[in-house]
Design brief:
Layout (H helix, E strand, L loop, with lengths): L1 H22 L8 E5 L6 E2 L27 E4 L5 H6 L2 E2 H6 L7 H9 L5 E2 L1 H11 L3 E5 L6 H15 L15 E5 L2 H14 L7 E4 L4 H6 L8 E5 H9 L10 E5 L1 H4 L5 H8 L18 E6 L6 H5 L8 E5 L11 E6 L5 H15 L3 E4 L3 H13 L5 E3 L5 H4 L2 H7 L4 E4 L14 E4 L6 H8 L12 E6 L2 H16 L10 H15 L11
Parallel strand pairs: 6-11, 6-12, 7-9, 7-10, 8-9, 10-11, 13-18, 14-16, 14-17, 15-16, 17-18
Antiparallel strand pairs: 1-2, 1-3, 3-13, 4-5
Helix pairs in contact: 5-6
């Protein structure tokens, strides 16, 4: 499956490049793609090279030396929000093409409740396939509307078959199950689904972790059609019989890359085996069969092997964006080589500038302890900041992201728990206080800004302080200079870490247990 992605990406790269040439301005050759403190490393857009890694001069190559501190380079945005908007499809044109007969109440909710009048390319491609009941994998860049790409056809189908469902009166027996890796994302998806179901008989329920034991001791029973849940919470409540999965016709794995990480794999595959995933697309809801949908901006390299345990992967239709695993061309990205000791001062300077501009921003850290420190530091420095990380108690963590979304606070300090799928349309600036050690994490963090519907200019500022961070930066810079795919975009982080540990053990002459070898 991954090899198929790569073939699609290569094939679409030429189509995308040709389209860009046709729509480019006459003076585009003079547009600076990369600007550096050392001007000899500046690069114009049409000066890109296709040389392999190691053969292209990199501004960050000399960053391993201590004297490089203070150096920086910037990847400039080459596409504006207006250009992105112009490339979208109007909703009326899409519906007139007859690829989806949308229920009137759903159409009304889409336009009035969510204010959607245009569809992105990935939505226009995915909606007819999902509506056709095919198992579908939607692999596309962050912020392009993957959630609506599956929610619209699934809700539309449930509305059409609502009167035909034989057991709709059963309690705690949904027909749609959406699994997410995080509570904030589950809450967000449930809110969007609720708005789309406004004025209909479809009921939406969000099931979050944190109080699972209490729900097992004092369970609630209610009618629900769409259940949005974290994997851990729903698996426990299904095992105890509180929730029933017999009526599920659509299973969605949102942020599938995280759910397919080795940390979740065993629990996920065990849970998914209970669903009768059909081998062909099914149009009749009375026929027992479950549709599998996956959505993500990155995918593990062993996706095929994992899914093969629960479904015939040959039946999955791939909807792949031509921009998948490429740098975001509409977001400016600045890389700063500084020492760890200088990071707080630089952060405070940027925070004050953003505060003066009334520009909401997100600060990412690699660890919860660092996220705590950043929050305390900014608050003590007069910058009101919210903190959100996975080590926080549920009652404290609950609602933190909504506070940022509502505009109660313009600064959010978080870990990668806040980088997956969350709709941070308000945010205009991402600061990587800790630079991520994996390219997939960098993709997701950058995706918190420049999202569909956001017309303002967006910026990513990266603090680079360690040797491991420099190695990742060099590969990103090479991709920018060549216009190629970002390398090593493997979202299975646990598998990467385990492989590195095993390699270090072998190098040190320590015997590696056979069952633990990767």
């Amino acid at each position: 499956m991954l090899q198929h992605f790569k073939r699609l990406l290569v094939r679409r790269q030429f189509t995308s490049a040709a389209a860009q040439v046709q729509t480019s301005e006459p003076n585009r050759s003079s547009k600076p793609l990369i600007t550096c403190r050392r001007t000899q490393f500046n690069l114009l857009e049409l000066e890109r090279s296709d040389a392999k890694f190691g053969a292209v001069p990199l501004c960050s190559k000399g960053w391993l030396h201590n004297k490089s501190k203070g150096d920086h380079f910037t990847l400039n945005a080459i596409i504006t929000g207006e250009q992105r908007q112009a490339a979208m499809h109007t909703l009326q044109t899409f519906l007139a093409a007859g690829q989806l007969e949308m229920e009137q109440q759903l159409l009304k909710n889409l336009q009035t409740e969510l204010g959607i009048k245009h569809l992105t390319d990935i939505q226009a491609q995915a909606i007819p396939i999902v509506d056709g009941s095919f198992h579908t994998l939607i692999a596309a860049e962050t912020g392009c509307g993957k959630t609506l790409a599956y929610l619209l056809p699934v809700i539309n189908k449930r509305l059409k078959f609502l009167q035909r469902d034989a057991n709709e009166s059963q309690l705690n027996a949904p027909t749609v199950l959406i699994l997410t890796p995080g509570r904030e994302l589950a809450t967000q998806i449930a809110q969007i689904a609720s708005k789309l179901c406004e004025g209909t008989d479809l009921k939406v329920k969000a099931l979050l972790g944190g109080n699972t034991k209490q729900q097992m001791m004092n369970p609630e029973f209610e009618k629900m059609d769409i259940l949005v849940a974290t994997l851990g919470a729903v698996s426990k409540l299904v095992t105890t019989g509180i929730y029933r999965m017999e009526q599920v016709r659509h299973v969605v794995l949102d942020e599938a890359d995280t759910l397919l990480d080795d940390s979740f794999t065993d629990k996920l595959t065990y849970f998914l085996r209970r669903f009768p995933f059909h081998r062909n697309h099914v149009q009749d809801a009375s026929i027992v069969g479950t549709q599998l949908l996956l959505a993500s901006a990155t995918m593990p390299t062993n996706t095929r092997e994992i899914l093969q345990k629960v479904i015939d992967v040959e039946t999955i239709r791939d909807v792949v964006s031509p921009h998948l695993h490429y740098l975001m061309p509409h977001v400016t990205q600045k890389f700063m080589r500084i020492s760890k000791a200088d990071r707080p001062a630089n952060l405070l300077l940027l925070a004050k500038q953003d505060k003066a501009k009334k520009r909401p921003f997100i600060v990412f850290s690699n660890k919860s302890t660092t996220s705590d420190y950043v929050s305390i530091f900014l608050n003590n420095s007069g910058i009101n900041c919210l903190n959100l990380n996975g080590d926080m108690l549920m009652k404290i963590r609950l609602g933190r992201f909504e506070e940022f979304q509502r505009g109660n606070c313009d600064v959010l300090s978080t870990t990668d728990v806040g980088s997956r799928g969350l709709d941070t349309t308000r945010a205009r600036h991402v600061i990587n206080f800790d630079f991520p050690l994996h390219v997939s994490d960098y993709i997701h963090r950058c995706g918190r800004i420049g999202r569909v519907g956001s017309m303002d200019k967006s910026l990513v500022t990266n603090f680079i302080s360690s040797r491991r961070e420099i190695d990742v930066v060099q590969r990103i810079e090479h991709a920018a200079r060549t216009g190629g795919l970002l390398p090593d975009v493997n979202a299975n982080i646990k598998n990467i870490i385990n492989k590195r540990i095993m390699a270090e053990m072998k190098q040190a002459g320590i015997a590696v247990p056979q069952e633990e070898a990767f």
